[in-house]
């Protein structure tokens, strides 16, 4: 069967991935209310199309932190991608490069910073960072990212501890024993392959991640690197304003794919108030629930300049590695281009806030 949309790729992944991996990739926290909201909140928004505007010469391109990208969709950091395909992060990063966009590598990757840099030298690569209790180790990761050509650090700010994910607890989730957390050596690389009571991932995080992290640590990070900093996981205008005041280059409005705090808002619900508060002082991106071209257009209308996808790229990997992710990104690009044309937009700059309204407007 030809897979022609992101949901087709997810259906395919459900058939081919082992349960341990599929559940880990798919789940959200607790009752998964926010997981559903991330999708449903997009469905509650309506696009008001303008017509008769000559859209024959269209461009989907834009610029992110000074990097031209061919369309405003990048790949979010997701841990342990070799559970989806033997080439894991290497394939995903190459596919993002082939699509002319950004790849973000997770700290908890099954391929190292150095391996991905070698496999995808021309991809715009950003490195997602978790702050470990061991600050020397954390600073070492930053140095390695600088040395191997990573263009920005994406500090995840919504994970002082990990969310409660029932499926991982039920499965006693572990990384299969032939895989490693490749950015580390010894115990830090292997610890996650052994789980005692609950999810191995939660055990790992609770032991090693620094839950004292606070805004001073952002200043610490700024003091040890010249790379631009992106804060991922902001959901309130208050926190966005603190980030802007600290001189952060960009934020990702994100709820971590609904895997952290259940019942927090969908990212797209949180976006408009944040965009208003930030008022152009830094770039704003969004991830969470992007599954079709119209979702991208809605996020851009409501204040994001770029969106990222996590699970859709994993479904592409599970299908056919690099080719599969390329196909997923192509589908999103084509659907976005079509959405531009059908709303009377020739470029991303033509997308206007007033083109997107909440469905309640029609039910008064
Ligand atoms: C994630 N996410 C994530 N975020 C992060 O900062 N570091 C990480 O290691 C991971 N790992 C991870 C694993 C898996 C399996 C998923 C699904 C997600 C969150 C990720 O970057 C992103 O915020 C969401 O995936 C976006 O939502 P969608 O596109 O999956 O709906």
TrEMBL record:
GO CC list: peroxisomal matrix
Database matches in Gene3D superfamilies: Aldolase class I (3.20.20.70)
Residues the entry annotates as binding FMN: 77-79, 106, 128, 130, 156, 232, 254, 287-291, 310-311
Pfam families: FMN_dh
Keywords: Flavoprotein, FMN, Oxidoreductase
Reactions it catalyzes: a (2S)-2-hydroxycarboxylate + O2 = a 2-oxocarboxylate + H2O2; 2-hydroxyoctanoate + O2 = 2-oxooctanoate + H2O2
Domain FMN hydroxy acid dehydrogenase residue range list: 1-361
Requisite cofactors: FMN
Residues the record lists as binding glyoxylate: 24, 165, 256, 259
Entry-linked CDD domains: alpha_hydroxyacid_oxid_FMN (cd02809)
Catalytic residues, chain numbering: 256
GO biological process, one term: fatty acid alpha-oxidation
Listed EC numbers: 1.1.3.15
Source superkingdom: Eukaryota
Gene Ontology molecular function, alphabetical: (S)-2-hydroxy-acid oxidase activity; FMN binding
Family label: Belongs to the FMN-dependent alpha-hydroxy acid dehydrogenase family.
Protein name (record): (S)-2-hydroxy-acid oxidase
